[in-house]
Structure formats: C-alpha cells, structure tokens
Amino acid sequence: MDTPLTSRFSTVAFLGLGAMGFPMAGHLAARSRETGGRTLVWNRTPGRAEAHAAEFGSVAVTLQEAAGADLIVSCLPTSAEVDEVLDAVLGQLTPGSVWVDCTSGHPDAAPRQRDQLRTAGVRFVDAPVSGGTAAAKSGTLTVMVGGPQVEVEAVRPHLAFAGKLVRVGDTGAGFAVKAVNNALLAVNLWAAGEGLAILGLHGVQLGAALEVINASSGRSNTTENLIPQRVLTREFPATFGLGLLAKDAGIALDMAETARGSAPVIAQVTALYRAAARVIGAQEDHTAALKLIEQMNGVELK
Amino acid sequence: MDTPLTSRFSTVAFLGLGAMGFPMAGHLAARSRETGGRTLVWNRTPGRAEAHAAEFGSVAVTLQEAAGADLIVSCLPTSAEVDEVLDAVLGQLTPGSVWVDCTSGHPDAAPRQRDQLRTAGVRFVDAPVSGGTAAAKSGTLTVMVGGPQVEVEAVRPHLAFAGKLVRVGDTGAGFAVKAVNNALLAVNLWAAGEGLAILGLHGVQLGAALEVINASSGRSNTTENLIPQRVLTREFPATFGLGLLAKDAGIALDMAETARGSAPVIAQVTALYRAAARVIGAQEDHTAALKLIEQMNGVELK
Amino acid sequence: MDTPLTSRFSTVAFLGLGAMGFPMAGHLAARSRETGGRTLVWNRTPGRAEAHAAEFGSVAVTLQEAAGADLIVSCLPTSAEVDEVLDAVLGQLTPGSVWVDCTSGHPDAAPRQRDQLRTAGVRFVDAPVSGGTAAAKSGTLTVMVGGPQVEVEAVRPHLAFAGKLVRVGDTGAGFAVKAVNNALLAVNLWAAGEGLAILGLHGVQLGAALEVINASSGRSNTTENLIPQRVLTREFPATFGLGLLAKDAGIALDMAETARGSAPVIAQVTALYRAAARVIGAQEDHTAALKLIEQMNGVELK
Amino acid sequence: MDTPLTSRFSTVAFLGLGAMGFPMAGHLAARSRETGGRTLVWNRTPGRAEAHAAEFGSVAVTLQEAAGADLIVSCLPTSAEVDEVLDAVLGQLTPGSVWVDCTSGHPDAAPRQRDQLRTAGVRFVDAPVSGGTAAAKSGTLTVMVGGPQVEVEAVRPHLAFAGKLVRVGDTGAGFAVKAVNNALLAVNLWAAGEGLAILGLHGVQLGAALEVINASSGRSNTTENLIPQRVLTREFPATFGLGLLAKDAGIALDMAETARGSAPVIAQVTALYRAAARVIGAQEDHTAALKLIEQMNGVELK
Predict the structure, then answer these.
(1) In whole angstroms, what is the distance from residue A262 CA to residue C194 CA?
(2) Which of B233, B212, B235 has the alpha carbon at shortest distance from B224?
(3) CA-to-CA distance for C49 and A274, rounded, in angstroms?
(4) Which residue of C has its CA nearest to B268?
(5) What is the CATH number that goes with domain D176-297?
(6) Residues of D in contact with C201 (CB under 8 A)
(7) Taking all residues of chain D, what is their mean pLDDT, rounded to a whole number?
(8) Which residue from A193, B233, C296, D31 has the fewest beta carbons nearer than 10 Å?
(9) DSSP E strands: which ranges in A23-161?
C-alpha cells in the first residue's frame, strides 16, 4: 500500500533555476511568505541559488537539504538530468511527499520515475509548462499535468506560477502534451519562416503580409507574436534554446515511432531543427531557426 | 497614356456566386441600396443569380450585361476561370472601370490579366479574401490587395464585404499573400492533425490536450477554431474544399520554385493535401484532410 | 578477464526459422554434415523446426537444448524478441561460445546484449544480413558484422549462408549499417514509386521508362529489380514485410536522433512507410508500400 | 499537311557546346567524316566552337548558318534557352528538317516548340541524355526520346553519341522521363548522404559501409559510383551543376502539380537541393549537395 499523501506542503524545494525555473521559484517563494512556509532553492551552480535567495527571500540549499521538502518541484533541461538528481537524493526523500517535474520530459521517463519514487514513498506528477519566460515572470504559465486526479488536486494550489493548470491524463500525459505542443510550435514557426521567405523573394513587404495573415486563416502564435517580436526585429532574444525545441519535437516524433504512428511533417521539421541547431547554434533562440531558412533562400526576413 | 479612372462606381457587377461570392455580393447589393447605385450579379448557372436577386435585391444579368459595370468584382475557383470570363467580355468593358479579382488567384496571372485589361482601358486589382463563409456573411472578410495605391484607394470604399483591407504591394502581391496564408493554414492544420493523432495513440484525451495547447505556444487558428468546431465534432462542413486548399498551397510552392527558393515543409504538405484530395475527396471540406492522417495512424480524432 | 573463446564450433544452434532463417539454417546444416558437426534448430512454433529437420537433416530442439551450443545464431523479427530469448536461456549457455545475432537489430541493443552475455562468458557479434529470401536460399547473403576483429574472424568460416561478409566496426556497427541500408532501400523504393506515378499520370509507358532509367543515373536496386519483378507484375510477393522495413528505417531515424543528427528525408520516408503499414498492411510485401502511392495519385503502376 | 521529312541528313548542326554538348558534337563530327557529311557547330561564345572545329574537324558557324542544316541537335541549359535560339532562327530553317533537342527540357515546352517548328515545316523530337560527361565522351549516352515513331526512327542512326536510345512516348515524354530520372538521382544521392552522415556520427567507417551497401538492397548508382568517386575522395568534380539538378527535380515536381499528383519525397528533396544551391553554390557539382548534409550534421563524409 502506498504511503499516505502528506496533507500539508509547508516546505517546498525548487530544483533548477534556469531561465524558466528562476522566476517560477520566485512565485513559490512569494506564496510561502504569505502562508508561513519555506521555499528552498537548489541549482547546479550555487551562485544562482544565492542570487535567488537574495531576490526572493528563498533559502539556498544543497541538493541533500532540498530532498527533505514536502513538495519538490524540478525544472531541468531534459529527463536525463532529472534522473541524475533523482538517483542522487532517493535515500533522503520524505515519505508522503510529492515530486512535481516541470521539465519538458519524455513520456517514457514518467512511469519509470514514478515507480522509482514510489519505492521511497514519494508521488510523482509530470507538469511541464508553456508560456516562456514572460509568463514565468508574471506567474501565468500554462501547466499540463499528468498523474492521478487526487495527487494533481493536492498539488494544484501550491503551483503559484500557474495561470492555467489542466490535468490532461495519467502519468506521462503532461510530458506527451508538452512535446506535441512544442512540435506544433516548431512546425508553425518553420512554415511561417518559409512562407515569409517566399514572399520576400517576390518583393512583398513582410510587415504588411503578417498584418493580413494575422487577420486570416493562416495565423498562429508564431505569426502573431514570435515573428513580429523576435525575427522581424532581428533581436532573436535567447529565452528558449533552439536545441531544446529540437529535443522536444524529437520527443513527439519518438512517441509516434513508439506507437507505430505516422507524422511525416513533424518528422521532417524535427530534422530541420536539428540541422538549424548545428548550423545556427543550439544555444540560439528557437526563432533563430529561421536564419537557416534565410540561408536556404538567400533572403532576409525583415 | 491610361484612360482616366472613373470617379464614380454607381454600377457594380459581381461575377461568381459560390459559397463565398454569394454573401459577398449581398453586401455590395446592400451598399448599393444605400447609395442609390445598382448591383448586377452573374453566375455560370443563372438560377443562382436569380436567387441572389430575390434575396438581396440585386439584378441577375448575363455576362455581357455585367461587363458594362463601373466596377467588376470576380470571385471564381481559380485564375483559369477568370481568364475565360475575361476573354469573353473584353470587348464589352467600360473604359475607366476597375476589375477587382477576389479569386485566390496565381501571382503570375495578375500582371498578364492587368496588361490584357489595360488594352480595354480597364484597371485590374487583385484582392483575395480570407475568413471563410462566416466572415463573408458578416461582411468582415480580410482583403489582401495588390495594385497601384491610387487604384486600391479608389475601390476601397466600395468593397462592402471587407472587415479589414490591406494593400500588400503591387499587382500580384494580393494573390501572393493569399497563397502563402493558405499554405500556412494547410501546414498548421496538418501538423495539428499529426500531433493529435500521436496523442490519441497514447491515450491522451484530445479535448483536454487542445484546451492546453490553445493556452500555449503551439496554438494556431486551426487548433483554436477549425479542429474543435469541425474535426472533433466529426462534422467537416464543406465550406472550403480540400482540392482548393491543395491548389492554393501549390501556388505558394510554385512561387518558391519560380524564385529558386526552398520551402521543404510547404512542399511536403502540398503533396500530402494532393494525396488527401485523391483519397478523401477534393470536394470534402479542407479539414477532412485529417481523415487521411487518421487512416495513416489507425486512430480517430474525436 | 573474459572466458577464452572456444576454438571449435562443432555444435551450432539456429534460433528463428522465418522466411530468412529457415534457408539460412539449411546452409548451416549442410556445412555440419560436411564437417561432422551438428546443427540444432529452434522455432517458437515447433512444427517449423521439425519441418527443417526433415528437409535439411538438422535437429529440432527446445530452446534450453539449443542454449548449450558452441555457436548460437539468431534471426528474429526485432531486438525485443532477441532480448526475450536471451533472458530465457542465459543460465544455460556454454562459456566460451559465441552468439551471432543476424536479426535486423537496434544498435543500442547490441552493447547491452553483449554485456549481458559476457556475464555468462559468452561473446556477442551483431551480423545482420541483406539479400532477401533468394540470397538466403542460395547462400549468397551479404553479412555486415559488428564486433571485435578476433571474434568476427572466429565465426566467419561458420556462417555458411554468407556470400560476402564484411566487418564494418565494433559492436552495434553491423546493426547500424543494416538499418541505414534498409533506410536507403525504403527511400529509393518510395521515390521510384513517386517518379513512376508522375510518369503514369502523364501517360508515359512505365516499362520503357524503367528501361531507360536503368541505363541512367537514377537507377537503383529498386528500379532494376524490385519494381519490375514485384510491382509492375502486380505480384507483390510477401518475402519481406512492410512493417519490418518501416521498423528498420525507424532504427536509422532513431540513430539520427540519438546523435542529434539531421536526416529529413529518411524521417519523412519512415513516416510514410508507417502510414503504408497501416493503410496497406504491415504483413504485405515491402514493395506494396507503392500501393499507397497509387492511392495518393489515383494511378496504377503497371 | 506536313512538309515531307527529308530522306537525308547530310548537314548536321549542333547548338550548345557545354560540358555535355562538346563531346556529343564530336561524335557527330566523326560520323560525318565517315559518311561524307558536314557537322556545323555553334556556341554562344564562338571561341568554344572554334576549339571544337580544331579538335574534331567540325565547322564553326553562326547561328544563322547553323539554321540551314538538315538535322539540328541542341543541348542547352534549359528550355528557356532553346526558346530563345528557336525564336532567333525560325525564319532560316530548312523545311523537311528535324530539330532534336537534347536539353533536359520541360515537358510543357515540347508541344509548344513542336507547334512552332511545324509552322516552318520542321519536326521536333525531344531527346535528353543521361550518363554524364564520361558517357558523352565515350559515345555511350542513354537517350530517352519523345516524338512520333517515324521521326524517331529517322534520326536514330544519326545520333552517334548514343549507347542506348529508347522511344519512351510522344512529344514531351523524353523530357518527362529525364526529369523523373534526375529526380530519382537527386533523392537517391541525398538519402545516401543522410545515411552516411548517420553512420559517420556513430563512428562507422564509411568505406566499409558502402562496400556492404553496394552488395545489399540499398544500393544505387549514387552509392556505387558517385559517392565513392566524388564525395569520399573530396573531389566533387563539377561536371553537372547542383543548380541544374535542382531545376530538373523541379520539373518532375511541376509535372506532379500539373497532374494534381502527390510526390511528397520528390517535393522535399527538390527544396533541399534548392537550399544546397544557395548555401553551397549552384555551379558546384551536384554531389556537393552533400556538403549541406555535412553542415546539417556536423560531420564530414570521408
């Protein structure tokens, strides 16, 4: 029988203070101040945790200290890093606690991680987020959650960075929806880049074209927000890496393969982002993938 | 020297009363009643024109009678049908008048049609529309217009079906932007279908997944509107044919080829819509392309 | 230290008597008769092993009896079946023996299987084959082998079904080359199908077209052999299943993903074979994938 | 009624002395010497024609002098250049003569060119060639011919550069088969590049891999000849330009679109060659397209 779920989450630990995790943990810390709880923060490079403590009143701790929390929230680059951290702290975890993984993880990792945590009496919920650094800062992230209903409801009030939180299914379903969401982001962004390149080659003014498309059937988040803000401005601010988007699209593709499904467009686009990560740089902003389209067409999107 | 542009457009003729043209011409007729002008309507099958006259107070006429109008608006399946009609009436046109083509035409056709009309002292403006039958009925279509500024401004007040009208460039630019917009529609729709098929194969509830995606970075007009309204409902109402969307994407692809551009994703997706038009049916609604994805994956999107 | 490699392979066991394995094991049995050794054969459905014994003078055995051989050769649908069999017999294996896996396996499985076998003092060599049932019957298969040089040389003389045997690298390299070879087969076959469909739509006689292509730069094994023999004849003899070819192409794609490589065409084609396996049937001959192309184009390749 | 076809072709003119045309015209000149006829040669840059005369005993002439020949053979970059030349000489042509166009032309151009020549009493046969500069030099080109049987037979004995000549259908069929052949070349070459890149990323020795693939089902002209000779050697000798191969694949794609066919792989590959022509250079050898694959994968094919 499973260890009973704790009824209180007075100590929360946040693991991974990257571009997303840093402001997300800030919202948890603000909530703790209101409720009289504590927010512990850990990062691989400790200076980042200390900066967080200074800015948000959280407590910078070692990984072993973080392990004792009632609620652990992780936000790391991939499921592989989650596995490493999980292996390192498995013996120090508190029975009855819950581990909420906000990483854009792999659906295959979720049941494995859940099983491993169960041996320590700990629950696992996959809860990746969407909205980028802007929504992370404003605490309006969309959270897509996989796991048993009761556990999702238990942690729901504590995820203070969420603007919208939807349980999309059982363990792994959150990762699955996130992977597909990001695959759609990748496809829509790439296609918009191709379309604008075609128009640019024919001398059409791209700003006017986008204005019309955004009032028409071809519009998407990428034509409405990303391209006007990041591409046409030539700013390409690196808030979400090209390599990570390629990884996420690859997870969706992997899900197709596992189920013997057929997703030829997602397959093609994943490969093109892999190419862009090589040619343009995996650390560049994901919108910089369109620089590869520019090279492929001899035209600048501006 | 060009024939001076007429300063009044008291008689307007609308050619092509299809699913889009019928309500569009209705808005022209309503405007004519307000301004004391006349709206003539012509359709290949005359019964449709008579029905329009009965419903909107327009005047059903022959093609030759329509040719004498001050402003001609055409809305036909492809540029080939426009060429046919144009050849048939070239001798009857009124010098100083303007021909506004709302067809989703080919950018290569526009300069040719403009040159041909100039021999009759008539201007040509390409002005395709987006928004579907709903926006056609409500008079809120987005119109993307190509042509000289002065001619665009001359006709702008008379296109009563427009919610938004943007001049995107010179002759042909309207067709170009429309083709690219529809290519993006095609890609975004297809990719969303693949993504949902993957999730369906993994047992994720598609309604919940769409709710989350529509609050996330992967959202597009297709996930927000088309798929919830037409696909998950299994209704697939045939308002815009699969074959016509394939044709439009093909125009974008053709534009890429003409400019020696590279648009690998639009290229693949065009081919997949051609396949869907064969396997599912060119007359089916464009969203029925996702039935091919269902067959490819052995899963139903519902 | 590793158990010394046996210097003799007098008892050989063959696991998996499918369309390929059955005749391959026949060549091992013939060799055994010449050298005074024994060939044991095992199949999941025992009747097939008994038929082999009757036809080739091999000895039909249980899996546990087969496990004691000096040389084990397996030829199963995927690495998953090899894992199952390996788990079942690990305790019964003979130290110093070698396991040669002719399955079209996954490169990731090879080092894992090698490590597992090492605990039992057994070597592992990956040695997938190409040439189809015809070359399996004639004993002229191409064998691509991965593993340490000394082990490859030790087993080389005993693989009597080989027409050509090349060591392509260390453990897993055989599987890797096989996966890529089959991915190329898949692409070349699909592309030829598309090309012939285009010509068919334009009324060109396909036999004459193939004759010319096969004397030109576009020729491949698929235009020279598979399409004239299997497609234009409308025979599609099921010697190598469509589902298995999709699986193999998927392994190549997986290898690309693992290495963060970019293979957009192999990615697309893998997805199209997955689609064909759903629409046409995974058990159909791999050349029947072209029936999906026929549906996509409304044309028959004959 | 058509002008009767001439029964003798004592004067032959060759238009276009490029990498292919130069040696092709050499074979015509050698044949003329045997038969007592004359071979006239013309090139846009006259020095090239004079060099041909010096080397092969042909006669360097102006375009107008060439126009009077009994048999005109043209070999130009695209149908557009053929149109230009044809327009320039239409009035000087000899009724009863035949124009054989060995350009890799567009199937849509052929009936138009045939109709135009008929007004001058001249026949048109499309007869593109395959085999590259090596076969052009050795006189063993494969010629794929479209046109009426009687005209094809009339010119057959005079095309001294042919190793194999097949009539594949009516006017335009030669161009069609050539476009598809080259599209297959493009796909097979690109896929082989991807496959080798995958193997290279996994540390497999590419020479050994090719040796095995060339004895296996994945082999093609590109793995057997082009890649070992041009890519692994890092020579990439520019005998057939990347831009021209992209153009040819584009013709095949255009044929698919015209017939509302679906060729998703040829569509993607055409776009990738267009990209390679931009990034690597349209004038580079067609095999240099694989340098783009190298960039996309961060690996060198050697």
Answers:
(1) 18
(2) B212
(3) 47
(4) C268
(5) 1.10.1040.10
(6) 255-256, 259, 261
(7) 96
(8) B233
(9) 38-42, 59-60, 71-74, 98-101, 123-126, 129-130, 141-146
Tell me the shortest Cα–Cα distance from A166 to chain C, in angstroms. Answer: 30
Q: Domain ranges in chain C?
A: 11-169, 176-297
In tens, the pLDDT along A102-119 reads 999 999 999 999 999 999
Taking the C-alpha atoms of residue A238 and residue A19, their distance in angstroms, rounded to an integer, is: 10
Task: Please give the C-alpha separations between residue B220 and each of A246, B289, B302, in angstroms, as whole numbers.
Answer: 20, 17, 18
Q: Is the dihedral of CA B239, B243, B244, B249 positive or negative?
A: positive
D63, containing H or E segment: helix D63-66
The torsion defined by the Cα of D275, D278, D283 and D286, in degrees rounded to 10, comes to -20
Q: Which of B245, B262, B272 to mutate to test the interface with D (most CBs of D within 10 A)?
A: B262
User: What is the C-alpha separation between A249 and A270, in angstroms, rounded?
Assistant: 6
Task: Please choose, from the candidates C13, C90, C1, the residue with its C-alpha nearest in 3D space to the C-alpha of residue C53.
Answer: C13
**Would the pLDDT of A93 be above 80?**
yes
What band does A6 get if pLDDT is binned at 50, 70 and 90? confident
Q: Which of C270, C269, C189, C282 is nearest to C241 (CA)?
A: C282
Please state, as a whole number, how many other Cβ atoms lie within 10 Å of the Cβ of residue D300.
13
Residue pair D13/D94 in contact by the 8 Å Cβ criterion: no
D272 to chain B: which residues are within 8 Å by CB?
262, 264
Distance (Å, whole) CA C151 – CA B113: 75
What is the DSSP annotation of D85-141? HHHHHGGGPPTT-EEEE-S---TTHHHHHHHHHHTTT-EEEE--EESHHHHHHHT-E
Confirm if B175 and B199 have CB atoms less than 8 A apart: no
Structure tokens at B232: 């998950």
From residue A234, give the alpha-carbon distance in Å to each of A104, A201, A231, C214, C233: 27, 18, 5, 49, 57
Cβ atoms within 10 Å of B274's Cβ, excluding its own: 29
The values of phi and psi at residue D260, to 5°, are 50, 40
CA nearest to B292, candidates B282, B302, B279 = B279
Give the Cα separation of B239 and B259 in Å (integer).
Answer: 32
A166 has which bridge partners? A144
Beta bridge partners of A126: A101, A146
Phi–psi pair at A126, nearest 5 degrees: -95, 130
pLDDT in tens, C252-276: 999 999 999 999 999 999 999 999 9
Please answer yes or no on whether A275 and D298 come within 8 Å at the CB atom.
no
> Are the CB atoms for B27 and B87 separated by under 8 Å?
no
Residue whose structure tokens are 């993938």: A289
Residue C79: pLDDT over 70 = yes
Average confidence (pLDDT) per 10 residues, chain D, 302 residues: 76 97 98 94 96 97 96 97 97 96 97 97 97 95 96 96 96 98 98 98 96 97 98 96 97 96 98 98 98 98 96
Pairwise CA distance, residues B80 & B89, whole Å: 15
CATH architecture of D11-169: 3-Layer(aba) Sandwich (3.40)
Q: Which residue has the tokens 């499904």?
A: A261
> Cα(A19)–Cα(A21) distance, rounded to whole angstroms?
6
The vertex-A10 CA angle with A4 and A14, nearest 5°, equals 100
User: Are D178 and D104 in contact, with CB atoms under 8 Å apart?
Assistant: yes
Q: Using the structure block, give the residue that is written with the tokens 């044991």.
A: C40
Predicted confidence (pLDDT) per residue in B66-91, tens digit = 999 999 999 999 999 999 999 999 99
Contact D274 B254 (CB under 8 A): no
Of C246, C264, C271, which is closest to A263 when you measure between CB atoms? C271
Between CA B284 and CA B240 the distance in angstroms is 8
